[in-house]
Design a protein that fits this description.
Layout (H helix, E strand, L loop, with lengths): L5 H7 L15 E3 L5 H17 L2 E5 L5 H15 L3 H4 L11 E4 H4 L7 E6 L4 E4 L9 E4 L8 H28 L17 E7 L11 E4 L5 E6 L5 E4 L6 E3 L7 E5 L1 H6 L9 E3 L7 E8 L6 E2 L17 E2 H10 L20
Parallel strand pairs: 1-2
Antiparallel strand pairs: 2-12, 3-4, 4-7, 5-6, 7-14, 8-13, 9-12, 9-14, 10-11, 10-13, 15-16
């Protein structure tokens, strides 16, 4: 990623001092359940993790380790290439899928480089931020010509993560007291994407972040992180930062803002960030599980009562998603859209 930009250092010096709480960590849940009793216990565990943490790790999830390792290896080969080679598949306003780094975007917040790829190729989203337009556009993946193995590994991995995400969605539905498939129909034409992250060693770890504090706008995020680690979660109990230590072969799951709205704040999308490492590079692969572009996101009728009225106005996911993508390339005159923009004031 090149030498450290003085502007990066100047901006980073104004960051709050970093601190985090050492803790046992977020819940670790075994998905290998076959009996009814075990399934009920599993649902209860999932519900408690979503409510108390907004994060959990899963083991015995069914994703073959070889499938994950193939994509990790292909991603490492991609990021090891010279900058000019990687930038042949750079994203742009017309198609926001592809490669970018902090030098390309002049983004002084995050110390990383990224390759974004949609699960469905192409993926359909609105062409404008006006829902009344009705015009759609296609997001098409940009594949590096010199690494054909990347596409094969990605597509195999994406199929497995899609299956795992649907399983988790069913368990979360049950944990909310809903029918098992209550949420499944929202994902018939899903807009999910996978991000390949590379965090190079950082010479100013006391000043920089791999990724600043944020919440995911997805329904669920399924994260594979390597043994270096660096992910931290803001504890709902005391507001302190808790390091998520890598668990071999596990995936880290977090509740996204869409699930927060569906659950009418029963479950919350929690802030998290990534710390940089001064000596080791780090790789991670988040899978952002998103509904179809036409889905209107709002509190589910079953979870709205006289005692707990709807806390959000409906919003169109496709327009929300398009806004997030477009904001990477132009100033829209407002802050990045968040679900709080749709919160009903009491």
């Amino acid at each position: 990623m090149g030498d450290v930009d003085p502007a990066f250092i100047q901006a980073a010096e104004h960051r709050p001092k970093l601190s985090f709480t050492e803790a046992q960590g977020i819940p670790l849940i075994d998905l290998n359940s076959s009996s009814y009793a075990a399934t009920k216990d599993l649902v209860d565990e999932i519900g408690a993790a979503c409510k108390n943490w907004g994060f959990f790790q899963v083991i015995n999830h069914g994703v073959p380790l070889e499938t994950r390792r193939k994509l990790e290896a292909a991603a490492a080969r991609f990021f090891a290439q010279p900058p000019e080679e990687k930038r042949k598949v750079s994203r742009d306003e017309a198609n926001p899928q592809g490669y970018y780094d902090t030098e390309l975007t002049k983004n002084v917040r995050d110390w990383k480089e990224v390759l974004d790829l949609t699960v469905k190729n192409p993926t359909i989203i609105p062409a404008s931020l006006d829902p009344a337009d009705g015009e759609l556009r296609q997001l098409v993946n940009r594949w590096p010509e010199n690494l054909p193995e990347l596409r094969e590994a990605f597509e195999e991995y994406a199929r497995e993560l899609e299956k795992l995400s649907h399983k988790l969605l069913r368990l979360i539905s049950l944990s909310l007291g809903l029918q098992e498939n209550r949420l499944s129909g929202f994902f018939n034409d899903h807009t999910s994407f996978i991000r390949l992250n590379h965090y190079p060693p950082c010479p100013i770890p006391h000043l920089a972040l791999g990724v600043g504090s944020h919440k995911d706008s997805s329904a669920l995020t399924v994260l594979a992180q390597d043994e270096v680690g660096g992910l931290e979660v803001k504890s709902k109990a005391d507001g302190e930062w808790v390091r998520v230590w890598p668990t071999p072969e596990a995936f880290i799951i977090n509740v996204g803002s869409i699930t927060q709205v569906w659950s009418n704040d029963e479950y919350e999308s929690v802030e998290h960030r990534v710390m940089v490492n001064s000596e080791k590079e780090r790789f991670s692969i988040p899978f952002f599980f998103n509904p179809g572009h036409s889905v209107m996101v709002e509190p589910l009728n079953e979870l709205v009562t006289e005692q707990s009225p709807a806390k959000y106005r409906p919003y169109n996911w496709g327009t929300f998603f398009a806004n997030r993508k477009l904001s990477n390339f132009k100033n829209l005159g407002v802050n990045n859209v968040q679900i709080d923009h749709f919160r009903i004031q009491e």
